[in-house]
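It is time I had a proper look at our fold encoding. Can you supply me with one protein entry, sequence and fold together? It will help me judge whether the discrete encoding reads sensibly. Leave the record below and I will have a look:
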Amino acid sequence: QVQLVESGGGLVQPGGSLRLSCAASGTIFSINSMGWYRQAPGKQRELVAALTSGGSTNYTDSVKGRFTISRDNAKNTVYLQMNSLKPEDTAVYYCNARMKRYYYTDEYDYWGQGTQVTVSS
């Protein structure tokens, strides 16, 4: 079994900050990339930010300069620091990890349960 446990969501005023965390646990051989997606009501899930094991990052344009993704490989944990939050950042944020559970298996995507982020005054 593999679990991705997210924390750090909540309600924040526009211009505020939140930090999301996601820890992967269970039988894991290697993790390629970890990242965050979000889904707002009535919209498709979209990539927010991703970080590979080699350190390459990818951000969606709307969060560049405001959000920072980081990773602790030893703890299989990924973080998303969100600054200057806007009402349009309101969504359920999902953690994603692309990993191999055993050396002989292919890579698969695993997902957390999601954490609500609400930006409102």
About this structure: The chain has a mean pLDDT of 96. The CA atoms of residues 52 and 64 lie 17 Å apart. The chain is about 0% helix and 55% strand.
